[in-house]
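Propose amino acids for all 87 sites.
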């Protein structure tokens, strides 16, 4: 589980690049879209409809990732609305 958490943590700089630029840096958005978003989607797909570690019960991995993934929903409204359109 810690290995998956560490893999997830290594993907965060691209996401925070988008957030800290307030969605105004097209280069950072493109990097996030190309490198990070597919990895996040793969993690969710590998879970096969279950929690992220492939279990029927919530794990520390889910608790670790969910709040940060919640930030992605910010991209739909407000300051980050343009980001959602670009993704």
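Proposal:
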């Amino acid at each position: 589980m810690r290995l998956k958490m560490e893999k997830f943590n290594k993907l965060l700089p691209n996401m925070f690049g988008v957030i800290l630029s307030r969605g105004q840096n097209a280069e950072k958005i493109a990097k996030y879209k190309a490198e990070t978003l597919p990895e996040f989607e793969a993690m969710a797909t590998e879970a096969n409809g279950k929690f992220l570690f492939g279990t029927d019960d919530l794990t520390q991995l889910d608790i670790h990732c969910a709040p940060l993934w919640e930030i992605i929903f910010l991209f739909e409204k407000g300051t980050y609305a343009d980001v959602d359109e670009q993704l």
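The chain has four helices and no strands. Residues 1 and 69 are 18 Å apart (CA to CA).
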